[in-house]
Structures are given as structure tokens and as C-alpha cells.
Amino acid sequence: SGGTVPRQRPPPSAMGRGLALLLLPLALLAALAQAEGGKTAEKKEEEVKIEVLHLPESCSPKSKKGDLLNAHYDGYLASDGSKFYCSRTQNEGHPKWFVLGVGQVIKGLDIAMMNMCPGEKRKVIIPPSLAYGQQGYAQGKIPPNATLIFEIELYAVNKGPRSVEAFNQIDKDGDKKLSELEISQYLKEEFARDGKKRDPSVHDEILADIFKKNDHDGDGFISAKEYNVYQHDEL
């Protein structure tokens, strides 16, 4: 869909759902898992187990909440070792871009990829309460109460679009709210900087996704409060 992105939240469509699946295949039920799986998500004793498979000699910068990460990952069911996901077979094999720590992937991956540096490889074990919980994810072939294993290779750690610095950089007119045009321009600059060729629909889908998830009052702008994920930062 190379056309303009509507200011209001885009209506669900088969194409929109397909693009969302292509873009963020593990994020589709993250919010639902948190909402419906609240009982299991509160289990403090369950945590992500992390094994570092490869650590570069120069480990910098380390990833933190709000950073924009580029990574490949394979997902396996711990019960039988079967692979349910491989990022290299999706989206023409391009590594995935996502913002860390804001719920664009399942909570276990948000935790597992903290303090990780470019070139690092990890094997992580994620309990059901930090993955898809009691309901599982039938479309992704993940049964209820499934423990997941991911093998992750991180390629890039960039300053994400969720920091105060980034907000002020995007907010060209300084009115403390982000318009569709301002965020669109920011995405174009980010894409140009990493030099990878992308279909225009990817830009449109990310732009629509940002507004869908952040423009809570539906006024066509994203306020500092709506956009900022850092509770301690002041704008």
C-alpha cells in the first residue's frame, strides 16, 4: 500500500494485518497476552534465562530501553525443539527492526535483548508468562503454556525514536506534539541513514503502526506524553 496513511487509526484489513504480520510477527498478541494472561504474568519466580553464545571484543553500545535494534532470531518450542519462527525466511530475509522495551515484541524478548551489543549472539529461554501465556498463539503454531527458546543475533543498536532527544529532533516546529509529516520525515531520514532498500509500503506501515499505538486520543498528533515511554524523562 504505497498511498497516503490516514490520520485516524487505520481500519483493520486483510492487507493491513498481513503487513503487520510481516513487520512485527511476534508483536501481534503481545498486548493481548498481557491483558488476558495477567494472572500468569505476575509470577515473579519465572524469568528469562540468557546464555551468551558469542560476545564481540568491542561490545559497544549496549542496548537499552527505547533503542532501535536490528536483529535476526529463530524461535523454537522447548517441549520438542521444533522451529516455529525464522526471521531469515520472512520479509526477503531482512533482519527485523524494532524498538526495545516498548512491547513491540513479546515481553520475554524485550527482557532478553537488554544490555546486548552489536555482533552478540544469545540463546534465551522464555517462560510462558513472558511469552504467549495460557492462550498460546495458534497462528504462530505456539500451544498454550509454551516455553520458548530463541537464538538471537544482534546487528545494530541505534538511538531509538522514544528518547527525549529524538522527540525534540522529530518535533521540527517545537510545538511539543508530533504530526504525521514530522514522523514520516524522521522515518525517511532513519531509513536513508542505514542504507537498506525497502519497499515504500514498509514506511507507510510503520507510520500507521506508530499512530495506531500512540495517538490515544485520535487527534492526529502524538503528544509528548503519548510518545514518551520513559516515565522519568521530562519534555
What is the residue-averaged pLDDT? 78
**Strands, total number:** 8
* Shape annotation: globular
Total number of distinct structural domains: 2
CATH hierarchy: architecture of the largest domain: Roll
Q: What does the main sheet amount to?
A: 6 strands, antiparallel
- Beta-strand percent range: 15-25%
What is the rounded Rg? Answer: 18 Å
Class based on secondary structure composition and strand pairing:
alpha+beta
Distance between the termini: 34 Å
Order of helices and strands: HHHEEEEHEEHEHHEH
* Proportion in helices: 25-40%
CATH topology of the largest domain: Chitinase A, domain 3
By CATH reckoning, the class of the largest domain would read Alpha Beta
Helical element count?
Answer: 8
Give the low-confidence spans: 4-32, 35-43, 229-235
Description:
The chain has eight helices and eight strands, in the order H-H-H-E-E-E-E-H-E-E-H-E-H-H-E-H. The longest helix is centred in the last third of the chain and has 15 residues, at 180-194. Strands 1, 2, 3, 4, 5 and 6 form a six-stranded antiparallel beta sheet that branches. Strands 7-8 form a two-stranded antiparallel sheet. A hairpin with a 5-residue loop joins strand 2 and strand 3. It has helices at 14-23, 30-36, 38-41, 107-112, 164-170, 180-194, 200-214, 224-227; strands spanning 49-54, 68-77, 83-86, 96-99, 121-126, 148-158, 177-178, 222-223. Helix 1 (14-23) packs across helix 7 (200-214). The protein has two domains: 49-158, Chitinase A, domain 3 (Roll), CATH 3.10.50; 164-223, Orthogonal Bundle (Recoverin, domain 1), CATH 1.10.238.10. With 235 residues, it is α+β, with helices and mostly antiparallel strands. One of its GO terms (cellular component) is endoplasmic reticulum. It is an enzyme of class 5 (isomerase). Residues 1-35 form the signal peptide. Keywords: Calcium, Endoplasmic reticulum, Glycoprotein, Isomerase, Metal-binding, Repeat, Rotamase, Signal. GO terms for molecular function: calcium ion binding; peptidyl-prolyl cis-trans isomerase activity.
